[in-house]
Amino acid sequence: MPSRRLVIAALAAIAAVIPSTAQAAKQQPPPWLKVEDGVTQPQFSLDEAIEETVFVQTRLDTDRDGNRDRIRIRLSRPRETETRGIKVPVIFEHSPYRGDLGDAVNHDVDVEVLPQDRGGHKRAAASAARPRVRGRSRANLPGSLDNDYVPRGYAVVLGESIGTFGSDGCPDIGGPAETLGTKAVIDWINGRAKGFDEAGRRVRAKWATGAVGMTGVSYNGTLPNQVATTGVRGLRTIVPVSAISSWYDYYRANGLVVAPHSETHGEGDNDYLGEDTDVLADFVAARMKTPQCAHARARLVARQDRETGDWSSFWRARDYLHRVKRVRASVFVVHGLNDFNVKTKAFAEWWYRLAARNVPRKLWLHNGGHGGPGGATAADYKRTVNRWFDYWLFGVRNGIMAEPRVHIQREDGTYRDEADWPAPGTRTATLRLGAAGAAAPGTLGTQAAAGVPQSFVDRGRVLDTDDVLIADPDTAHPNRLVYRSPALTRDVRVSGTPWVDLRISIENRNAANLTAVLVDYGPTGEPAMVTRGWLDPQNRSDPAHSRSIVKGRAYDLRWDLQPDDHVFAAGHRIGLVVVSTDHDYTLRPKPGTKLTLDPRAGAVRLPIVGGAAALGF
Q: How far from each other are the two terminal CA atoms of the chain, in whole angstroms?
């Protein structure tokens, strides 16, 4: 990790006065640029492109060897930047996955009792580990960015994140060193940082206009979010795809240790169960397990805190939401509505804050999982991204900022353009819980209903939430509670972040997982998981502070589910399923925790287009 002095000095070097995105967009495209129908066209030969390797010097010394860390980048630019002296903007993808990857051993998630049930809330050192090595795919490099953009008149820069592959240092997984290492590349492109070739000679980006656009998927999309919050001059736009906006939301949820999911939700086992910042560091850099980076790894293990799950300064340093006020780049957000790896809260919370700051922005939501849109719509998506870069980096007047801000894919695969997200006209509708008996499946309605306390028992690691606990809604189940609305007489659309309010007591232990699942039940009761959310009852008041619970005492608990945009079709029912342990996401204690829910104080608050009146009941 860098010293506090170096980090503060580097952050202080960020310019106080930064050109606005509106000013940046007033540029005129160069006369040599070939444009048709508002999109740049291939005009230069990729075969003749100039390729270079440059080592960009940072202000950091994360491996503590007494030398400033250097970031290795590889770049490709049109030969005409030499033969004709043209200057070009840059498409920049930074990544920790270029090479020298290590083996990652996940933490054990099958525990005797939840760690916060042991009494006290001291920080844990390291959790027990199991020999479970999972793989990630490498980024698709050198690949398509060169092919797509160099012939159109861009340079393409592929960077290697600090501490990974050919770059110096030690990774800090979403932290300040990673952010400043990324920023250094943009500074070099703009003449503010030193760069060297493989022979040690100074290299300058005299061929660059200084305008930079960043893009990438997953971690490669997270790095643009990070560096945009520095306000670095020259970064005109970013296109983050399936990107993290807060690492706490990636590895934690309302005080619970929660895993990302390894594939589209509901398909197979979760290979990332037990992953955390130290595990990811071990994967992106084999050097993390060497003396060179032992201090950096020990810091991750000690401060990530897999015991309490509390928010802390460690997570704040890896949270970009509270730094949105520094963003000066435009942002084109791309995310899958069924992404349970980088969950939808990542894009939604980022989007909410960008909107509050009136950052120029665009949103593309597809109906798939982790990654960008595919299938028949991939070409339309790619053209839209090209037009976005052409506008922000070349100044091509193609009207993209006058078009609807949101492009969203519906359940049937078609896309709809909308003015904003959540959908205009969305208002909160409160559905209250009801139950006729202690074991009977309950109801959801707009009016308060009669109810009696209902109990269920956590099955811990035994039952899968999706395959078992949301099924058969007409049958009582000892390990879950289910509540359903009447059959809908019309389509009902949820757009935004759902919340639940539940009064729950834990009868026989000092801690429990809590999971709420929003379910779409078809006419014959067939379930489709829509979204879910998690809470540690010890963090009922504040994610930063655990507070002990009293066995048998009822607590009023409120927590969010992952944001979504989903249409419940006419004839279907809206369902809420309440369980304890979520098999594929949370730590899994031994079975036996008994919980009691009082439906008379329970509600689910849904962001519905048209509000409660749209429900039709």
A: 57
CA distance 420 to 406: 6
Could you tell me the residue ranges of all domains in the chain?
4-101+136-246+320-418, 102-134+272-319, 426-615
Distance CA 557, CA 540 (A): 6
Residue 142: per-residue pLDDT? 56
Which two tokens mark 292?
């060179």
Nearest alpha carbon to residue 412 among 447, 376, 380, 367:
367
d(CA 70, CA 166): 9
Q: Residue 85 and residue 581: Cα distance in Å, rounded?
A: 62
pLDDT digits (tens, 9 = 90+) for 364-402: 999 999 999 988 889 999 999 999 999 999 999 999 999
Q: Looking at this protein, which amino acid is placed at residue 76?
A: S
Q: Which of 146, 276, 305, 339 is catalytic?
A: 339
- Residue 73 host element (H or E): strand 70-77
Mean pLDDT of the chain: 91
Verify whether residue 278 is a known catalytic residue. no
What's the one-letter identity of residue 449?
Answer: A
Return all residues near 398 (Cβ < 8 A) that are at least 6 apart. Answer: 35, 38, 39, 387, 390, 391
Q: Catalytic site residue 218? A: yes
Which of 94, 107, 265, 370 is an active site residue?
A: 370
Q: How much is the pLDDT for 17? A: 34
Whether 504 and 557 have beta carbons less than 8 Å apart is answered as yes
In the predicted model, is pLDDT for residue 555 greater than 90? yes
What is the CATH topology of the domain spanning 4-101+136-246+320-418? Answer: Rossmann fold (3.40.50)
Residues 6+ away with beta carbon under 8 Å from 20 = 328
Catalytic pick from 95, 167, 218, 505? 218
599, 576 Cβ separation under 8 angstroms: no
Q: What is the pLDDT of residues 89-104, one digit of tens each?
A: 999 999 999 988 988 8
Has 545 been annotated as catalytic? Answer: no
Please give the average per-residue pLDDT across 454-467, as a whole number. 89
389: enclosing H helix or E strand: helix 378-389
Distance CA 26, CA 147 (A): 28
pLDDT at 540: 96
CATH superfamily, domain 426-615, is Galactose-binding domain-like (2.60.120.260)
- H/E stretch holding 301 reads helix 294-304
Name the more confident of 578 and 103: 578
d(CA 264, CA 371): 10
Among residues 135, 543, 604, 122, the alpha carbon closest in space to that of 316 is found at 543
pTM listed for this prediction:
0.91
Q: Check: CB of residue 457 under 8 Å from CB of residue 585.
A: no
Contact 446, 430 (CB under 8 A): yes
Rg of the chain over Cα atoms, rounded to whole angstroms, equals 25
* C-alpha to C-alpha distance for 529 and 566, rounded to whole angstroms: 11
Q: Is there a contact between 62 and 177 (Cβ–Cβ < 8 Å)?
A: yes
Q: What is the tens place of the pLDDT at every residue in 149-187?
A: 999 999 999 999 999 999 999 999 999 999 999 999 999
pLDDT at 482: 97
Query: What gap in Å lies between CA 617 and CA 605, rounded to an integer?
Result: 16
